[in-house]
Amino acid sequence: MALTDYDRTMDWIDATIATEGRGYVCVAAVHTVMVCQEDEELREAVMNSDLIVPDGQPIVWAMNALGNKLSSRVYGPELMARYCERSADTGARIFLYGGANQGALVQLALNLRRRYPGVRIVGGYSPPYRSLSDEEEDAVVNEINASGADVVWVGIGVPKQEKWMAAMRDRLTAPVLVGVGAAFDFHAGRVAQAPDWMQRAGMEWAFRLSREPRRLWKRYAMYNPKFVFGFLRQYARARSV
């Protein structure tokens, strides 16, 4: 996990673009960390990324309790918003890969252009929920490469987005890929974000659970306690050294 903040993360993105490098960024919340324990393909995709940023507030608390000095998390939706604002000045070209459907993707692009005048969105694609055929995958690669994108924002959720970035990294000419999960739904206005005070208190999961209980209850009931117990074991080991 990188000891970083929003500005340093965005500086890394811009530096990678400037040097024509190729990398990808994973944002890690509790859910991502815990699913990595049981999904080897996801774990490999995350560990092979160039930057893993602390997306969840509990991740920041845990890292600081273990002796680090993180001032804030690097929340995927906020990182995307801040970078869109920055890119309106730098001219970095953005491609959007994700969204619930094509209509939601169009709304996302409209919202971003209204909020950040001058942002350069050079293309977008909302993939179906099924796996793409080889022909469809080739077409998507060609579309992204032809757009001349500098950054591909990927919003198809954990673990699909991490696995997609790992699989596509060598095929895409865009210098940077960033997986941001629910950011597309938030910025498109399809899903409400938790109030700031709930985010600061590490209670965003409770807000999201209240909005989508049928979809999310198993995730939080299973992984939140496992994270707490796992952290306590690690903390106890660190204290005993």
From TrEMBL:
<keyword id="KW-0328">Glycosyltransferase</keyword>
<dbReference type="GO" id="GO:0047244">
    <property type="term" value="F:N-acetylglucosaminyldiphosphoundecaprenol N-acetyl-beta-D-mannosaminyltransferase activity"/>
</dbReference>
<dbReference type="InterPro" id="IPR004629">
    <property type="entry name" value="WecG_TagA_CpsF"/>
</dbReference>
<dbReference type="Pfam" id="PF03808">
    <property type="entry name" value="Glyco_tran_WecG"/>
</dbReference>
<protein>
    <submittedName>
        <fullName>N-acetylglucosaminyldiphosphoundecaprenol N-acetyl-beta-D-mannosaminyltransferase</fullName>
        <ecNumber>2.4.1.187</ecNumber>
    </submittedName>
</protein>
<keyword id="KW-0808">Transferase</keyword>
